[in-house]
Amino acid sequence: MNSYDVIVVGGGPTGLACAIEAKRRGLTHLVLEKGCVVNSLYRYPVNMVFFTTPELLEIGELPLVCQREKPTRLEALKYYRLAARHFELNVHQYERVEKIQGSDGAFEFSTRDRLGVAQRYRSKKTILATGYYDLPNRMGIPGEDLPKVSHYYSEAHPYYDCDVAVIGGKNSAAETALDLYRHGARVTLIHRTEALSDRIKYWVRPDIANRIRKGEIQAFFNTQVTEILPDCIRLAPAEGANGKGTAKGTNDKEKGQTLKNDFVLALTGYHPDMEFIQSAGVEMEPTRMRPRCHPETLESNVAGLYLAGVIIAGLETAEIFIENGRFHGKQIVADIAAKLKSHSTPSGQSGSG
Q1: Between vectors from CA 351 to CA 349 and to CA 353, what angle results, nearest 5°?
Q2: pLDDT in tens, 156-173
Q3: Can you list the residues of the chain whose pLDDT is less than 50?
Q4: Measured between alpha carbons, how far is 164 from 191 in angstroms, rounded to an integer?
Q5: DSSP bridge partners of 227
Q6: Do residues 72 and 49 lie in contact, with contact meaning Cβ atoms separated by under 8 Å?
Q7: Of 24, 160, 188, 318, which sees the most CB atoms within 10 A?
Q8: Percent with pLDDT over 90 in the chain
Q9: 94 Cβ partners below 8 Å, 6+ apart?
């Protein structure tokens, strides 16, 4: 069984940043990623442009070069591949962690690789950087599991000349609705509150507002989907809307109507894998599901097990992005290195040299 100083679970930007810091401090490391490197970014829409500037996505002080002011998904994927290669990170792709056992100094990992073969590893310290994009927030309505429904959006071409419902009111929903409209889909945007989110990218907001105002994209606010059928969807006023569901570009008699529909894109957000985190012994604050961890070292209530990236925020996933999560590696690995050095100091000697 191979042993390491540090095993990082999750090969996203934060996980890679943690591995870079471990390597810089001379610690043996392994990154276990159930998909491809930066799997969440890979699943972003094909033509997505990041809201942030390139320097805020950089890890390991390695420059991210892009053609325009803001990097594209394709440029980000290339950058993180180059970072993994440049720092010679030890990454196992397509290997899912099924169980973490043991304790500080002697963690044991049970995994399964892409061929279905069981693997086992040991580590002195553990870093969980599992992100949140793999678990969508489900609506819990009939028909949500139909093949026509997806919680992810890649590109517009498959939806040409189709009736597509986009559920959600944040940035991803607005960008998806616009992309679909411009590629020949008939788009209906459905949102539970009375307006789109204030966090929509500043260059997207006037565009989506104008398309709705002109009736080019049909929009229902204060409205929820109550059922998805093979050829249609059913709508009703959202809970708390007091029966005041509204539709831009439609009239009042259409409230609660059944709409013809070919595809549903339920862009209702995502959440961390709380069950997996708790299975490792990490305690959660019950309301917002924030895991217990030290504010500076990010060590959880389980000694030797650290948390990095968005999972620290629990259900409040909008609090942490690549821009701030990428720094967690420095905090965590500094503490790990100090503790490993302390433990390796012979009895009777101080750890100060």
Answers
A1: 85
A2: 999 999 999 999 999 999
A3: 243-255, 347-353
A4: 14
A5: 234
A6: yes
A7: 188
A8: 79
A9: 33, 34, 35, 36, 113, 114
Does residue 141 lie in a domain region? no
210/289 same-domain check: no
Whole-angstrom distance, CA of residue 314 vs CA of residue 312: 6
CA dihedral 306, 309, 312, 316 (to 10 degrees): -170
* CB distance 222 to 244 below 8 Å: yes
CB atoms within 10 A of CB 43: 15
**Max alpha carbon distance in the chain (Å)?**
83
> Of 244, 274, 340, nearest to 28 (Cα)?
340
CATH of the domain at 172: 3.50.50.60
- Do 222 and 159 share a structural domain? yes
Classify burial at 262, counting beta carbons within 10 Å of its beta carbon; exposed 0-12, middle 13-18, buried 19 or more.
Answer: middle
pLDDT of amino acid 241: 58
φ/ψ bin of 215: left (φ > 0), alpha (ψ from -120 to 50), beta (otherwise): left
What range does the domain containing 229 cover? 149-266
Residue type, 332: I
Q: Which residues fall within 8 angstroms of residue 17, CB to CB, at 6 or more apart?
A: 59, 60, 325, 326, 327, 328, 329
Cα–Cα–Cα angle for 254, 257, 263, rounded to 5 degrees: 120
What DSSP letter does each residue of 201-228 carry, written as one string? -TTTHHHHHHHHHTTSSEEEESEEEEEE
**The pLDDT of residue 342:** 81
d(CA 160, CA 158): 6
- One-letter amino acid identity for 64? L
Torsion of CA 347, 298, 125, 14, to 10 degrees: -140
What tokens were used for 240?
Answer: 């708390």
Measure the CA–CA gap between 314 and 310, rounded to whole angstroms. Answer: 7
Number of domains within the chain: 2
Domain end, chosen from 233, 266, 299, is at 266
Q: Are 124 and 255 in contact (CB under 8 A)?
A: no
pLDDT value, residue 316: 80
Contact between 170 and 267 under an 8 Å Cβ cutoff? The reply is yes
Does a structural domain hold residue 352? no
